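Appendix B, example 12.
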Amino acid sequence: MAAIIAIFTFLGTYLDDKNPGSTPWWTISFSLFGVTASLVLVIREVLRMNKENEQD
C-alpha cells in the first residue's frame, strides 16, 4: 500500500519538476489517486477475506 502511494507521489513530483513555476497540482493529484487506489485494494481484500470466512 505504501509503495503505491510512494510511486504515485514520486510521479507527481517528477511532473511538477518538469513544469517549474506551476503549483504542485500534479503531486497533489497523483498522491490522492495513490491513496484512493490503495484504499480500494484494501477494501477489496477485506471483502474477499470476509467472503472466504463465510464459506467456511
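DSSP finds two helices and no strands in the chain. Residues 2-55 form one domain.
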